[in-house]
Specification:
It is a single chain. The strands form three sheets. The protein has a six-stranded parallel beta sheet with strand order 2-1-3-4-5-6, sandwiched between helices. A six-stranded parallel beta sheet has the order 7-10-11-12-13-14. A two-stranded antiparallel sheet has the order 8-9. The termini are far apart. Helices cover about 40% and strands about 15% of the residues. Helix 8 packs parallel to helix 9 and helix 13 runs parallel beside helix 15. The chain has about 450 residues and is α/β, with parallel strands linked by helices. It folds into two domains: about 130 residues, Rossmann fold (3-Layer(aba) Sandwich), CATH 3.40.50; about 240 residues, tm_1862 like domain (pyruvate-formate lyase- activating enzyme, Alpha-Beta Horseshoe).
Length: about 450
């Protein structure tokens, strides 16, 4: 029986990888395992929990994000030195296939499930190609469930994906290029069957937007939540969605009844010019003034808010960071993912930075390890790198210092009206605080601005 080893590399356990509540299983590898022929012996090695040690294999498959692609290349080198064929896929390989091809025997671009049986057949017949283009999967047929039995058992969340694609085209995001701009959805009953098969209670819906974009997807979300209630699944879960989802409060109410703990929403910035440059149309239409109202709607139903904000946009200043810190403290948002604007391959942001010659760290592939949303890897216009790092420290110090941190948690306790939801919010805040305190700039830069700046 031939042996397939699938590897999830982790080059550096930093940031969100340091906490169990913010780590997620390599679902893509579990999908690959599901479409591999039955006569193969398959093992998934996940460096979130187990450091890689070489073991014999007939074929190796590796997935990677940009931040851990160099670890993928290192592992691939070890196998290729022993004449074992290595295939690399995932979002970085899809956005930078020519680079990846230097370190692998074959590269899979796009969604691998639709092309993987052909890859296996070609390997078995001794004619493995150099590049394979995975087609966009027709999710409406359902019945493609990941091999969860091969995933590490210690994940707090079991990841579930119900849709792919994003009709938005945000300036800093490569999802629409990777998965397409058409919103593709699995049948509700197929999703419910998968949820029913999962024994653990905690679920992470890893769709880029579970509720979706428009009336049809909104009704589909309602059907999913009603199905979870009707089947009495008793799951506790979270989702990603957009600010416009709260326009229909009935879907929020159903989500709460179905077990929603919190939602992840990309608010991004409170600066209108930055929102416009980001092409964040849904936020522009709603307006920054709606951020607090959005939090209030979710809180009415006991659902917490994890809000994403981005620093390092053009023309930010010490004054802006002071205003942003004050806004966040009074926004009603329960936890904050604050990251530094990072031009990833495949984004218009990256294309523009290369054209303008603004990359500070552009020695690839070595510098990819800095593309983890905590480094200033390009020079924005009208703001120094030092100001951005100090701004990041300043804002987070406000959020996590006494008495603001404790007052925020007390407010969340009152607003959420649910002990389980509140405790998850506490864990999120602890994980995010720990991520900041272990960042490369935490000790290097001050946590306040000089009064003259």
């Amino acid at each position: 029986m031939p042996k397939l080893v699938l590897i999830n590399p982790v080059g550096k356990k930093s940031g969100y990888l340091m906490s169990s509540i913010s780590r997620f299983a390599p679902l893509g590898l579990a999908y690959i395992a599901a479409v591999t022929p039955d006569h193969w012996d398959i093992e998934i090695i996940d460096e979130n929990f187990v450091d890689f040690h070489y073991q014999e294999a007939d074929l190796v498959g590796i997935t990677a994000f940009t931040s851990n692609i160099n670890r993928a290349y290192d592992i691939a080198q070890r196998y290729r030195q022993k004449n074992t064929k290595v295939i690399i896929g995932g979002i970085h390989a899809s956005m930078a296939p020519d680079e990846t091809a230097r370190f692998a025997d074959a590269v899979v671009v796009g969604e691998a499930e639709g092309i993987w049986p052909q890859v296996i057949l070609d390997f078995e017949q001794g004619r493995l190609g150099r590049r394979y283009e995975g087609p966009r999967i027709d999710l409406s047929k359902g019945n493609l469930h990941p091999r969860r039995d091969l995933l590490h058992p210690n994940y707090f969340w079991q990841s579930v994906q119900t849709s792919r694609g994003c009709p938005f085209d945000c300036y800093f995001c490569s999802v629409s290029r990777y998965l397409g701009r058409r919103y593709r959805q699995r049948p509700v009953e197929d999703v419910l069957d998968e949820l029913e098969s999962i024994s653990t209670p905690y679920i992470a819906f890893v769709d880029d937007n579970l509720i979706g974009y428009g009336e049809e997807s909104n009704e589909r979300a309602k059907a999913l939540f009603r199905g979870m209630i009707a089947r009495n699944l008793n799951k506790k879960w979270w989702m990603q969605t957009s600010i416009n989802a709260s326009e229909d409060e009935s879907v929020i109410k159903l989500a709460a009844e179905a077990g929603c703990l919190f939602v992840f929403i990309g608010f991004e910035t409170i600066d209108q010019a930055s929102l416009k440059k980001m092409k964040k149309g849904v936020n522009l239409r709603a307006g920054v003034a709606s951020y607090k109202k959005t939090a209030q709607i979710y809180h009415r139903h006991g659902i917490g808010i994890l809000g994403a904000f981005i620093l390092g946009n053009d023309f930010e200043s010490a004054d802006y960071y002071r205003r942003l810190a004050d806004f966040l403290l009074h926004s009603g948002i329960d936890a904050f993912q604050i990251s530094i604007l990072t031009p990833l391959p495949g984004t218009r942001l990256m294309d523009d930075q290369i054209t303008a010659g603004n990359l500070i760290h552009g020695n690839f592939p070595e510098d990819w390890e800095k593309y983890r949303f905590s480094y200033m890897v390009h020079q924005p216009e009208g703001v120094s790198r030092e100001t951005v790092y100090i701004g990041d420290n300043y804002i987070k110090n406000k959020l996590y210092a006494f008495p603001f941190y404790h007052l925020r948690l007390l407010r969340s306790f009152i607003q959420l009206k649910n002990l389980t939801n509140f405790m998850v919010t506490v864990k999120l805040n602890r994980a995010l605080k720990r991520s900041w305190q272990n960042s490369h700039y935490y000790q290097k830069y001050p946590r306040r601005f000089d009064s003259k700046k």
